[in-house]
Amino acid sequence: MHSFAAFTRTWRVQSTRTVYRHALGTRFSSTVASHVNRNPVLELQQRGLVAAMTSPDLVSHVDAGPTAIYCGVDPTASSLHLGNLVTLLGLLHFHIKGHTTIGLVGGATGTIGDPSGKSAERQPMSATTLARNVAGIDAQFQRFFKRGRTYAENRGYAVQGGGGHVKVVNNKTWFGKLSALEFLGDVGRYARVGTMIARDSVKSRLESPQGISFTEFSYQLLQAYDFWHLFHEDGCRIQLGGSDQWGNITAGIDLIHKKKKTTEEQVIIDNSDDSSSEKAMNAYGLTIPLLTTATGEKFGKSAGNAVWLDETMTSLFDFYQFFVKTADADVGRYLHYFTLLNADQINTVMEQHNAEPEKRIAQHTLAKETTELVHGAEAVPKALLATQVLFGSSLDRVKGQELIDAFEHDSRMVSLAKPQVGEMSVDRIALECGLCSSKSEAKKLVKSGGFYINNIKVTDPAYRIADKDWIDGAVCVLRSGKSNYKLVKAA
Fold this sequence. Notes:
This protein has 23 helices and 13 strands. It is α/β, with parallel strands linked by helices. It folds into 3 domains: 2-31 and 315-393, Tyrosyl-Transfer RNA Synthetase (Orthogonal Bundle); 40-288, HUPs (Rossmann fold, 3-Layer(aba) Sandwich), CATH 3.40.50.620; 410-490, RNA-binding S4 domain (Structural Genomics Hypothetical 15.5 Kd Protein In mrcA-pckA Intergenic Region, Chain A, Roll). Strands 3-8-7-4-5-6 form a 6-stranded mixed β-sheet, with helices on both faces. Strand 1 (18-21) and strand 2 form a beta hairpin. The radius of gyration is 26 Å and the shape is elongated.
């Protein structure tokens, strides 16, 4: 509790020129250190965010001028999660430096499922669920880049003309027009089964008891065609993905190289003396390390510990707290991964953190930065207020509407009619709110001194919530034990 209070006591929202200062007085201004590289590939390398590149020529290709890069996700849920945030930040680095970024939602490939990193075949989704998930992720892509631009500008990045063009596409648009025979004729003829079998995503499944279906086996061809389509129609030259996507990315590059020999583009290259023209037609792959902890644990919904980027699925408090709980061994690396703070700023934070690790300055910095990046600057004071409330701080100066706003999408807040609440004893309210599973348990809790209203102990089970217990007449905070909270909003 001391560490949170020490951090928040001097935290304040300021102008876009000075973002915040923490307890030790570090000021992060709009000046970006000179070592922030204008080439996003080199910037990602400096941050430890490059696992592999298909060619070292990628650096010079990006240096030559604006290009286009894409990353795809299958809509297996209505929201992206923290594992996706690493690749989203990879795209953001390109976007704020003026390159076109394309987010691809796999409305078609999502019906099949990528076998990469999976031990069993994915269960098929209904058309309704798939459509809902596609719409959710499409909106999230748009929202992320809008907030990401603002966040970058607040950290001193000169985002020229609002950044490069952002485009969100759905691969069902082109796969929906292809028949099976057309796909086999247009894509299958270029694929070699031996190469497909040798890819890690397929090889590991072939050696497992579950095996792999032909449907999943063909997934790499579908993703390869995605890259070809964006290469041909949108001039997209780079595919970005997690390191588990290496096989799928190289499959796309192979298809591009084979197919373009039969297109007009190859004729142009053959008749050109300018070798740079041929380089301009190359395709590249760039992979980012999969997000893991220092102990090697993977983050993602398949690992059962997803932190969603949608605040209706992971509350602002829980999102913020996830980063506050980051281990000391991971926090420095995560500051490079999940923020746009430059190396000097991160070094300053880590020096101060190492001097007084009990204050968890680095973790709170990480939590504040990622919350602002993903949810916007207005979400940070909400997350801090929720943390203040749920860590038992005094509520004397808290406004009712601020509480309601801070917990707007949090399952801890329940709505009850005020007259109804006034007619119930607190043991009954504890049951209605879900603090206890039975009235006898609730009565025992209150009598034992484990029940609180606005962090003030109540020991009489017959006590009824009075007007003085409602904060600004709008909300009251109930607690059982040390950390089980419910907020009752007057409906």
